[in-house]
Amino acid sequence: MEALLAIAKYGSFHAAACRMHVTQPTISMRVRELESTLGTRLFMRAGRGVTLTPSGMLAVRYAEQALGLLEELETRLGGKAPLNGTLRLGSSEMIAMTSLPEIVRQLEGRYPGLQIDITVANSFTLHDLLATGKLDISLLTHPDTSRLVRLVPIALAEVGWLGSEKRLSADTTFSPARLAGQSLLSVPPPSPLHEMLVEWCLKENAPPPMLNTCSSLSIIAGLVRAGIAVSLLPVCVLADEIERGSVIRYQQRRAFDPLRICAAFPRTASGSDLNCVVEIATDVLSRHRNFSAISSR
């Protein structure tokens, strides 16, 4: 495949042989073997050079993809830093809504040739993708340790009941009993927010309230912003609206513990570049007015 791409690029067997530091008969033999395997001609003579047949043009596209995948495989299994090629970055929706643009900007500034493939999902899904090797690193909220995934706590995010006076007055104090009969919106299980809600109710010796659900945190935030719903949310996703007074953070008889934000990556991963991602994310969150440092609690 390397011979095929070299000939296609330089226009002749001789030029390809010089570039690959082999003899021209070696290049010719490699092409014959490839043509025999594929059962088709890849090149036609054109004066002193050659041109690709239609089959050859198709073979070039597949060869480029195949060699690219082999290079990526060598990078991942050969101990090389993943930031030399593609970084498969996962992000919870909360991080995506508040801090991901600045994290990506700094990554691109530090690694100009880096390709970043971003997956936004809830933290439980991101954890599973990490455990099965489908992501390199994720920024997520996770309360537990894992045998397959290493978690590095980097920040805390406050959580509260948010809504507007269109739904409930600002002096409402929230408790599980007070929620009865209210139209509440939550992310569905499994999710850290849903687990927090259930645990909060259990501590108050009350059953979890009836909930409407939506899988998108940003949509829930939009519905709260519009005065349509009341929801348990990270305060950071509607911090500007709370400051302006268009969204209310209701008082609670029992406050929630803050969400613990972690950088997570497979325990088998190694290399200083992943540590750089952690450092960048920690720095961005530490300077964000709606997150607090782990050490401060």
TrEMBL record:
PROSITE patterns, A to Z: HTH_LYSR (PS50931)
Superkingdom classification of source: Bacteria
KW Nucleus (keyword) present: no
Keyword Oxidoreductase applies: no
Pfam short name (any one): HTH_1
Keywords annotated in UniProt: DNA-binding, Transcription, Transcription regulation
Sequence ranges assigned to domain HTH lysR-type in this UniProt record: 1-53
GO molecular function: DNA-binding transcription factor activity; transcription cis-regulatory region binding
Family indicated by similarity: Belongs to the LysR transcriptional regulatory family.
PANTHER family the UniProt entry points to: HTH-TYPE TRANSCRIPTIONAL REGULATOR, TRANSCRIPTIONAL REGULATORY PROTEIN
Name of the featured protein: HTH lysR-type domain-containing protein
Organism listed in the record: Bordetella bronchialis
Organism placement in taxonomy: Bacteria, Pseudomonadati, Pseudomonadota, Betaproteobacteria, Burkholderiales
